[in-house]
Structures are given as structure tokens and as C-alpha cells.
Amino acid sequence: MGLFDYFQAQGQALPSIEQRRQQFGLGDDYVGSAAQNIALLQRLQGGGAPAPTSAPAQQPATQTLGTQQSGDLFSQYQPRLQAATQKSQGLLGDYFNFQAQLPTFQQKLIDEAKERDLFPNAATLREEYSQNENLTPLAIEALVSRQTQSTRGTIMDWINRAVGGFESDVAQRQGLAQQAQQQRENILQEYQLAFGQQESLAASSLARQRESRLGGDENDPFAKMIQDYLLKRMGLGDAEEGTLLDDAAQDMESPPMSANVGTTMMWPPDSGWIWTATKDGGWV
Q1: Choice among 43-47, 51-55, 79-83, 180-184 with the minimum mean pLDDT
Q2: φ, ψ for residue 47 (rounded to 5)?
Q3: What CATH number is associated with residue 198?
Q4: Alpha carbons 186 and 169: distance in angstroms, whole number
Q5: Which residues pair with 275 in a beta bridge?
Q6: Burial group, residue 143, by CB count within 10 angstroms (0-12, 13-18, 19+)
Q7: How far apart are alpha carbons 135 and 131 in whole angstroms?
Q8: What is the pTM of this model?
Q9: Which domain holds residue 80?
């Protein structure tokens, strides 16, 4: 089973690489490689925290604020999520197993009844009734037909009741599986809400720290630009493209070294400018 199959079994789409970084506290060195995805799958299935699978060519000068906190937050939710996932997978497997048997369940009961000779044999009945000299051939056929239909009807009633009970079992297992999936989804939503609140606090803290370094206050337009920029980079702000800060960034000197795609660093040091490595070896 791969990550795609795992999330599909939970009724969810496979999160993007960036979403996986944020939701599971994986950090910027997570790029969705096969080894990293296997480690993440083992982590989600209860196999423990994934071991490091690769290291960036050069460590960034600073870690993205909130990365460590995100990992700590996920570790708090992991036991509950792990238990809910295992319960959901078990109930889903139970439901699918019973559901697969439903289309052939009635025929299996009919075949078993035939093997046990529960259905009347018309030839045998005809022979038995022929021993009575008072019965005409027409009367014998009528008796054979009536008893055959009566016995077959009784057996089919029993089989249909058994099928109805089996269908109820399948429906009950489906309900339990859906309930378990919803419980797991509730835990994920609770985690995502807590994660968003944590990231918002981290962004506010960054802005305050930067403002303090610059000696500015809430009315300082440059400090305000810094705050908007940080919020936008963390996906929490609504700053528009083409702000003065973006224009100023074009004049800034990019880091002189290369790094793995997605690596972030502050350059020049203590400048407050955060750069992200691109796949072509550049920085944005």
C-alpha cells in the first residue's frame, strides 16, 4: 500500500507535498521521494516516526518558524490519529468482506439446500403416490405439484429471511465503518485547526520580533511591510503581489550558494529576508 492507497482508503485525496509538510511537521527537506513517502506511511500506520531519508546539500541559515512546534503538535495528536486509523481500517475491511459475499449469499444457501436434498423430488413423490390405487394419474400429478410448490416455498422463505439478516449485518458494518471514518476525520480537522492557530501565533511573533529589531512601532510603514511579507510567505496573509516590499526584494542580493529545492534561509544574515531555493539552482 502506498500513500495514495492509504488516503484513498480513508476517503480522502492525497495531500500535496506542501500540505504534507505542514500537516505532519515534516520540514522543508521533505520533497516527496519514495523513501520519504514510505517513512511517512509507516508513521501514519503506527510504525513510528520516520527516520531521516535525506539531508539538504547545505543547512539553511534559519529554520522556518513553527516547524519544530508543528512537529510537537503532531506528536500530540499522533496517538489518537493512529488509534482512529487502525479502527477505521479494521471496520472498513470487515464491511468490504461482508459486502463482497452479499451477491452470492442467496445462491450459496440454495445450493446447500439442494445438496441436502431439502427440495422435493417430483419423480420420488409421483412414485409414492402411485402406490395408492385410489388415485388417478391426474390426481397424482396435482398432489405432486402442490407438495413440490409448498415445500419449495417454505425453503425459499427461510433462505430469504437469512438473506435479509445478512443484509442487515452488512448495513450495520457499513454504519460502524462510516462512524469510525468520521471520528478520524474529526481528529484531523481538530489538528488542522490547532495547526492553523499555531502558525498564526508564530507569524505574529515573527512580526513582533522583526519590528523590535528595527526599533519600529505599529505605525512604522516599513515594519508593517515586513509583517505583511512574513504573513504572506507563511500563507496566512492577504498581501497583494507587487507591494513595495516585493519590489525591494528584487534589489536584494540572493544567497551566494545553492541548496536543495524548497530550502529556506535568511540572507543577508539577520536581514529578515527569507529566500527559497528553486529547482534551477536559483533563489526567490
Answers
A1: 51-55
A2: -85, 10
A3: 1.10.287
A4: 26
A5: 265
A6: middle
A7: 9
A8: 0.43
A9: 67-214
